[in-house]
Amino acid sequence: MLVLGRKKGESIIIDDDIEIIITAVEGETVKIGINAPKHITIHRKEVYLEIQEENKAATSNVINLSDFLNMKK
Amino acid sequence: MKIQTSRFGEIEVEDNRVITFNKGIPGFEEYKQYVLFPADEKGETPFFFLQSIESEEVNFFLLDTFSFFKEYDIKLEDIIVERLELEEPTDAIVLTTVTVKGEIKDATTNLKAPLVINNTKMLGIQIVLDNKNYLIKQPLFQNSEKAVVRQV
């Protein structure tokens, strides 16, 4: 892993067209601005991992479907 | 075409009903093609299955979110509209995954990350909403109209 030191207002460029800017540093929190092409998807990692886990749980369901199917719209 | 599924056995899928998720679904990035069908034959419940064409074990149990949470609303970013090639809002279907740990009354749905499908172009994507009110584990039977009805 590459680790770079950056100050507020400084940025890094990844692969010509992705720019990551340190916009603020407040205690333990760093605010980051990202300029990237539209096709790049950006997620907070912990949210993304949680969604992966939730999707997995939605497939391995051992649901008693009849309970759900008794409900009408 | 006919496909094998672990839950439904062999099912017939018309080619024009195959939905492509170009980026896959988080946790299942390798599978891109799915078919959507109502959980009951008559389509009277708000539930659906999304079955992978490529893996017989992979299917998701989904909720037609708008019919269940009347106040649910999402705004699609331009890039998502573009990726789904959406021309009419009415072409979009919004569904959320349902999970059940234990009893059915504890069922939850993932309002944070709906699946959006263009029902005309047959393209799908799972998006992540930047709305703190929408939970990954939103209980289905609390604060919903149906829960109220059930208590009466």
Q: Multimeric state of these chains?
A: heterodimer
CATH superfamily of chain B: BH3618-like
Profile the largest sheet of chain B.
9 strands, antiparallel
Task: Catalogue the unreliable spans of chain B.
Answer: 144-152
The total count of strands of chain A amounts to 3
CA-based shape of chain B: globular
Give the structural class of chain B: mainly beta
Q: What is the domain tally of chain B?
A: 1
Largest sheet of chain A: 3 strands, antiparallel
Structural class of chain A: alpha+beta
Radius of gyration of chain A: 21 Å
Specify which chain pair forms the largest interface. A-B, 26 and 37 residues
Helix content of chain B: 10-25%
Query: How many extended strands of chain B?
Result: 11
**Percent in strands of chain A:** 25-35%
Termini separation of chain B (Å)? 47 Å
> Counting H and I runs of at least 4 residues, what is the number of helices of chain A?
2
How much beta of chain B, percentage-wise?
A: 25-35%
Q: Kindly state the percentage of residues in helix of chain A.
A: 25-40%
Describe the protein:
- The complex is a heterodimer of chains A (73) and B (152).
- Chain A is 27% helix and 27% strand.
- Chain A contains 2 helices and 3 strands.
- Chain A has a 3-stranded antiparallel β-sheet, with no helix packed on it.
- Chain B has 152 residues and is mostly beta strands.
- The interface between A and B is medium-sized, with 26 and 37 residues.
List keywords for this structure.
heterodimer; A: 73 residues; alpha+beta; 2 helices; 3 strands; B: 152 residues; mainly beta; BH3618-like; 3 helices; 11 strands; 11% helix; 32% strand; disordered C terminus
Chain-wise SSE layout:
The complex is a heterodimer of chains A (73) and B (152).
Chain A: E1 11-14, E2 18-26, E3 29-35, H1 45-59, H2 65-69
Antiparallel strand pairs in A: 1-2, 2-3
Chain B: E1 2-5, E2 9-12, E3 18-20, E4 33-38, E5 47-52, E6 59-64, H1 65-68, H2 78-83, E7 92-99, E8 108-109, E9 115-118, E10 123-126, E11 138-139, H3 145-151
Antiparallel strand pairs in B: 1-2, 3-4, 4-5, 5-6, 6-7, 7-8, 7-9, 8-11, 9-10
